[in-house]
Specification:
Layout: H1 6-22, H2 24-30, H3 33-48, H4 60-75, H5 80-90, H6 93-96, H7 103-134, H8 137-158, H9 160-163, H10 167-179, H11 192-200, H12 208-216, H13 219-253
């Protein structure tokens, strides 16, 4: 990556957040169904918990807050993969490459700026009570989970250098996050052998660990989630840089 002062990427982040804020009312209207989702979860899990005090170490209240936070991360993700795909397909990538900053870091900064604007009102809407109850540690992992998710999207977007259409790859990764990442069902409820594997996969750090930390009051869960998230942020960031370097070489080899 180019050695560009961090303030330039901070500026890209702030510009993206400002631009996204313009569309915030429309975003909130589109996501009114977030309330419906939480109500459906509450109705479903209330029936599942009938006669039980806890499942997988979580009470019914903890389960609803857990699902609220996983949905918050999912609904706040950016569309960076489609932005990269369109730049590759329509040729504007050639102009972007002439700019004096890292392509990967600039898109990641823009994606996180967009996600932050979406994330904050969703947290207020769905999680203000839980935030007051469990403190700020889980919020750190929610930010880390959003970064992991956006890095996934950036990596998928960079596959456009080879495939042009990246939506199928996104659908696959999304379903992994839904299922083995604990988006809809906490990993605590998985069979022991599967739970052990799922907790270590990168998908869990997009959903399970941030949400579980918010409801479990566990410093151990926070430290585990933070260390794992940092590891996968570094790995996915390296993968994104590698894909961009290979893709750029491919573009230059083909003459534009």
């Amino acid at each position: 990556m180019n050695a560009i002062p961090a303030r330039k990427y901070a500026r890209i982040f702030s510009f993206a957040a400002r631009d996204q804020a313009v569309y915030l009312p429309a975003f909130l209207v589109r996501n009114l169904f977030f309330v419906v989702i939480v109500f459906v979860f509450w109705s479903l899990w209330r029936a599942v918990y009938s006669g039980r005090d806890a499942l997988g170490g979580l009470s019914l209240a903890q389960m609803i807050w857990y699902l609220t936070f996983t949905e918050t991360i999912e609904l706040s993700k950016s569309r960076v993969l489609y932005q990269v795909q369109e730049e590759v397909k329509d040729g504007t990538l050639a102009v972007t490459l002439t700019r004096p900053y890292s392509y990967v870091l600039s898109h990641l900064s823009r994606a996180m700026g967009e996600s932050l604007v979406k994330l904050c009102p969703l947290l207020v809407e769905g999680g203000i009570l839980a935030t007051l109850m469990v403190g700020p540690l889980g919020l750190v992992l929610i930010a880390a989970g959003s970064l992991v998710t956006n890095l996934w999207l950036l990596v998928i977007g960079l596959l456009a250098f080879w495939t042009e259409e990246v939506a199928p790859f996104y659908w696959i990764i999304q379903k992994f996050i839904f299922i083995v990442g604990g988006m809809f069902i906490p990993i605590n409820l998985f069979p022991a052998w599967l739970a052990g594997v799922a907790r270590a996969l990168p998908f869990a750090f997009s959903a399970y660990w941030p949400a579980y930390t918010m409801v479990s009051h566990s410093s151990r869960a926070f430290l585990t989630g933070l260390c794992g998230a940092l590891l996968y942020i570094a790995a996915l960031g390296g993968l994104a840089s590698l894909l961009f370097a290979l893709g750029r070489r491919r573009v230059q080899a083909q003459g534009g």
